[in-house]
Each structure stands twice: as C-alpha cells, then as structure tokens.
Design a protein that fits this description.
2% of the residues lie in helices and 33% in strands. With 559 residues, the chain is mainly beta. The protein has two domains: 231 residues, no CATH class; 209 residues, no CATH class. The strands form five sheets. Strands 17, 18, 19, 20, 21, 23, 26, 27 and 28 form a nine-stranded antiparallel sheet that branches. Strands 14, 15, 16, 22, 24 and 25 form a six-stranded antiparallel sheet that branches. Strands 2-13-12-7-8 form a five-stranded mixed sheet. A hairpin with a 6-residue loop joins strand 27 and strand 28. The longest helix is centred in the middle third of the chain and has 6 residues. The chain starts with 39 loop residues before the first strand and ends in a 9-residue tail after the last strand.
Length: 559
C-alpha cells in the first residue's frame, strides 16, 4: 500500500525515534556572527480558536500561533553522516559573495524533524488553574508535501514578503532520513504548534487560555525581539458527535515523540488523530541543492528561485550545483554523468500481524534517489491491455533531456486502496534465514511519487519537486503518464496487505534478515547498483497464535 493512500491504524508507528543529524564531510564554518533580526511569535486568529476532536481522543494543540521570519529567511541545513553519529546543523546567512554558514551550538538540533522544545505552552482554565503544560517542537518548513491541512503550512504574513517560498515543504519524517533543509521565507510564518510534529494533550470540553512562548535558548539564538516571544490565545475544546475515534495519523507511519519540558498533560495514545490529515500516510535563500559553503551561480546576483520559470531544472524545483560534487555521480554511454541512484532505506515500522488466518510480516519500505538526475519514467498504453510500455528518460541539471532507454512496463492495479498505475517490480523483499537462504519473498510494484524528504542537502536536490499522487499515478483510462522520483526524495510503501506483506505462516521462531532491494531486475539505469540492497534484523518469537516480531535498533535507530 502506498504511504499517501494507506489508511487505518496499521500505519502508525509505536513510539518515537530520536534521530541525530550528522554532517557529511568537513566544511568551512564561519565564526559566530551577528544574525539579522530575527524571529517573532504572532497569533493569527482574531477571535477564539475552536479545537474539535472525535470522541475518546486527545486534543492537538493547534492554536493558530505562527513563528514569523524577519527581513531575512531562516534557513538551516541539518545533516548526518551515519545513523549513530552526532548532529551537524548550520544556519545560512547573507546572500551573494557574503553568503556563509554559521554552525549552531552542539545540541541545538537533536532530531531531523524539528527544533526540540522550541516553544512552551501553558493552558489554564477559566479559574486560572494550569491544566496542561508542555514544550512543543518547531519545524520551520511547515507540514510535509502530502498534508491536506493548509493551516499546517508555512504562509505569507507580512505584506512586503515575497509571494512564494523556494524551500522544501516539511521536515523529514522518515526515521532513516539523512538530511534536510529547513527554510522559512522572509516575512513568512510557520505554525509554532503543528500536529505533524507535536503531541496531543488531554483536555475536557470547555473554554481555556493558552500562553505560547518561545523558550529562552531560541530567543537568544535567533534574536527574537523583546515583547515578541509570547502570544496568548483564547480557545475552546469541542467533541464532534459521531466522529470516528482512533483514526490514523495523516501521512501514516510517523514517529511519535514526547518532547522535553516542564511536564505534559496527557500521553500519546495508539490510534492518534491528526486534524485534516490524509487517510493513509528579505535576503535571497540558497539555490536548492547548492552547498551553502560556496557562492550560488552568478555570485553577486540574486539567484533565480528554484523551480521558477526560466530557472535551471525548473521541472524539479532545483538549482544546479557543482556537477562534479554529488552523491552517486556516474557515467553511462547514453547520458554522460546524469543518472539516478536508487537506494533503499532499512525497513521500518516492522510488526507481525497474526490477527487473520495467515501471519503477515508488515513493514514500511522507502526507496530514494541520491544520484545526479531525477528518475523519470514515462508510460505509453498498449492498445487493448492494462499495460504500458515504460521508457526511462535522463536529463541534465538544466532540464535538457540527454537520453532515454526502455525500462519495462507499468501495470494497472485495480485493488481497493490502489486503483492506479504501478511501475512493475520496482522493489523486491526477501526474508533470509541465518544461512542466507530466502525463506519468503515478495516483489512490489510502485507508483513512483515524491513522498518523503530524505536528504535535500545533497547537490542538485529538488527543493520543490513535482508532487501529486493522483496526478502522477494515473486513472484507469490513461493512455500515457509520467512518474518520477526527484533528487533527495523518496517513495514509501507500507506493506500491510495480503499480497504485499511477507507471509511467515509456518516459519519457525528465530532470527532473520529482512532485505529490501531497489531495481531488482536492473531495468532502470543507475549510476551505482552496489547500494541497491539493505537488510534489517527481525526476530520471530512467541507461542503459536501469539507470535510477534522483535526488531533490534539499526545503527542506533529504533523504528
């Protein structure tokens, strides 16, 4: 099941994965310098806020408060070189020849998803008694690309602010992501309490007052003006009659997180409801994909917005960087050096479902593109069939096509929850015993779609990729289509249905390796195929009818 189309509590991750973000190699870091003044906190609602929730659920503290950037954007690059390494986070300042990075203090960023404990929220009842109190994380980039909740997006606030933002939407949410660009355009604001990254609180129906304040370390770090670090919001909680309790989080498999702070009223529960989620899953900023340590193209001039008309790589929303630097640079007789590099991430959200007649090992599988060219596959319908012939097309950073090659087929998938076109055998899954023999296997077709920000810090990464699940996956009567996976982005499928999950009925208890392989038949041309497979240890334990899967952490990531 595709992450953006999946539904139900199966897609929920239990517990939080606390990630550490690492740098990828040595960089020149400027000494601490004065930052442009700074961020501020505003309440955008002129009247009381009403927070609605289905019966039996907690409340998402979405008060309509925004963290707003000043005359210069807030731009932070977070990276990690490995899953068990400490974090490196750089703030990008200035433009043109004066553009430089400033290393944020160690410990400022401990998670790819957000600044931890950025704000503190205190909720009081009409008598003034504190009934809930917790710290909230903050993602400057707003909600991810697949969110349908516009209130969770970054928005233009100041009248002088640019009309658009070049930055990626959302902070990385896949637990095995590797890096991200957190950007907040000058004069734009992002929700200070965002259901995509926060935790709910336990409040009865009624009227309340919330005081939201930026915590002191961030006031100092980002030059929050005196008197603009706090907002007070009157709100009420209302249970919606007839609402369904226990619905999935929007976007599905998300790591939950309890933030550090002065206490939390109410703990996260299974089957959380995130409001408005999908069923299922000014200074000029840096050019997208441009290493912040070097001047952008045409230094001294304002770079074109990534993806703007007339800018290079407009289709993928990226600007070119040094073509010799980059993950997976390779050569091919037809395309030169411009090729995708498909890499699977370790399986995550692994669990054993024994509720039906068969025992199914279910998991999330992500494949991303770390190459130098987007993966673009076009399909042309075979007359009278439910197949399309697939052609892979290659382009350089300017978007100019430099080659093409046959790439297999697309097939129409009529099953409920799918009902779109899949690229055939995009990935393969195997469960291996301790001797390395495959004891179970499954091939999986994908609708290729930019779902997850895996590493938008790599050279040439797309900051605003083509997105739109329904648009790219096609309808039953489609005669042609184009599916793509842009640089820095991944596609996640949750294997939680018969025919997708791995059937382990009858397999003995013991230790196995769950292997994910991208491009298993070699139909797609890549710069590097040596990184196309990854394994995750899975241990089957328990008595018949009550078995479960234990999954040890992978290089420190417990997801």
């Amino acid at each position: 099941m595709h992450m953006a189309a999946a539904a139900g509590p199966r897609r929920l991750l239990a517990g939080l994965v606390v990630l550490t973000v690492l740098g990828t190699g040595a960089v020149a870091v400027a000494a601490p310098a004065a930052r442009p003044a700074g961020l501020r906190l505003v309440a955008r609602a002129s009247g009381p806020v009403v927070l609605e929730r289905p019966p039996g659920t907690l409340v998402w503290p979405d008060f309509g408060t925004l963290v707003v950037a000043g005359r210069a954007p807030l731009e932070v690059w977070v990276r990690r070189a490995g899953y068990d390494q400490p974090i490196v986070a750089d703030q990008l300042l200035g433009s043109g020849p004066s553009r430089h990075r400033v290393r944020l203090p160690a410990g400022t960023v401990s998670d790819l998803t957000s600044f931890a404990a950025f704000t503190h929220v205190t909720v009081t009842d009409p008598a003034g008694a504190v009934v809930a109190e917790q710290d909230e994380p903050f993602c400057p980039a707003g909600a991810p690309v697949y969110s349908t909740t516009r209130a969770s997006d970054a928005v233009r606030v100041d009248p002088w602010a640019p009309a658009s933002s070049p930055y990626p939407k959302g902070c990385p949410l896949v637990p095995f992501a590797l890096g991200g660009v957190w950007g907040l355009q000058a004069g734009w604001g992002a929700p200070s309490t965002n259901p995509w990254y926060a935790q709910p609180v336990d409040l009865a129906d009624g009227a309340y007052t919330a005081v939201v304040e930026i915590n002191q370390p961030y006031r100092d770090l980002f030059d929050v003006p005196a008197g603009q670090a706090t907002a007070t919001v009157a709100f009420s909680v209302r249970t919606t009659p007839g609402g369904a309790a226990g619905a999935a989080r929007p976007g599905g498999v998300l790591p939950g997180r309890v933030v550090a702070g002065r206490g939390i009223a109410g703990q996260p529960a299974d089957g959380l409801v995130r409001p408005g989620g999908q069923a299922g899953p000014g200074g000029q900023p840096a050019a997208a994909g441009q290493d912040p340590g070097v001047s952008p193209p045409g230094a001294g001039q304002s770079p074109a917005r990534p993806g703007a008309a007339g800018s290079p790589a407009a289709a993928g929303g990226a600007q070119p960087a040094d073509p010799g630097a980059g993950a997976g640079a390779g050569a091919d007789g037809r395309t030169g050096r411009w090729l995708p590099d498909l890499r699977p991430l370790p399986a995550w959200s692994v669990w054993l479902d024994g509720s039906g007649p068969r025992e199914l090992l279910e998991f999330a599988a992500t494949v991303w593109n770390a190459g130098t060219s987007p993966l673009v596959v076009q399909g042309t319908r075979r007359a009278g069939t439910e197949l399309m012939d697939a052609t892979q097309r290659f382009s350089d950073p300017s978007g100019r096509e430099v080659g093409s090659a046959p790439a297999g087929t697309f097939e129409w998938d009529p099953r409920p929850g799918h009902e779109h076109w899949h690229f055939t055998d995009f990935a393969a899954y195997r469960l291996l015993d301790q001797s390395g023999h495959a004891v179970a296997s499954q091939k999986q077709a994908f609708c290729l779609s930019n779902q997850d920000n895996i590493d938008t810090t790599i050279p040439l990464a797309a900051w605003q990729p083509v997105y739109g699940f329904n648009a790219v996956c096609g309808q039953a009567d489609a005669q042609t289509l184009e599916q793509r996976l842009d640089l820095g982005w991944g596609d996640t499928y949750v294997q939680d249905l018969p025919g997708q999950a791995i059937d382990v009925t009858g397999l003995p208890n013991g230790t196995y390796q769950l292997e994910i392989t991208a491009n298993p038949n070699g139909r797609l041309h890549e710069s590097d195929t040596s990184n196309n497979a990854v394994r995750r240890e899975v241990v089957l334990v328990g008595d018949p009818g009550q078995r479960f899967a234990l999954v040890p952490p992978y290089q420190g990531i417990d997801a």
